[in-house]
Amino acid sequence: QDACAYADWLSNRLSANVRIPTTAEWKEAASGNDGRPYPWGTGFDPSLCMMRESHQGRPVPMPVNNSRADCSPYGVYNVAGTVCQWSATPNGMNTHNHIVGASYNSMELMCHLEHTMQGVLTETFIHVGIRVAIELVDEDFLV
To answer: Which pLDDT band holds residue 47 (cuts at 50, 70, 90)?
Structure first.
């Protein structure tokens, strides 16, 4: 709910349509829509993202863009690690939405781009953040 409120606030601030992306939109942005299981391609390697096995000791949040390999073909960083994101896609219940991506405390399975979780819309999680989608209009493409 806070994520949607932020998107609404940002829409007004930017005079643009800003929203939380759907699970399908997030997956395309994360994979380049070519079916790859990880943003860098195939084959998992924890050193290519920020997840539980990427560093020694207790899993802790890491700086954004700490892993340059965790980048999709579209230039979207930190989708296989760092912080999970809310999506705008309901998970079959009015009170739950999909959570996509992986975080600093995720296991290998969660770093796979097809993996989703569910979250209760009224709960807050320390490992879940947001990304926003800004819808472009024709005027944005004028040269």
So the answer is: very high
Q: Is 24 helix (H, G, I), strand (E, B) or coil?
A: helix
pLDDT digits (tens, 9 = 90+) for 110-135: 999 999 999 998 888 889 999 999 99
**CB of 80 closer than 8 Å to CB of 113:** yes
Residues 6+ apart with CB under 8 A from 121: 1, 95, 96, 97
Q: Please write the tens of the pLDDT for every residue from 6-21.
A: 999 999 999 999 999 9
Q: How many CA within 13 A on the CB side of residue 111? A: 28
What is the rounded end-to-end Cα distance, in angstroms, of the chain?
A: 37
Radius of gyration of the chain (CA): 15
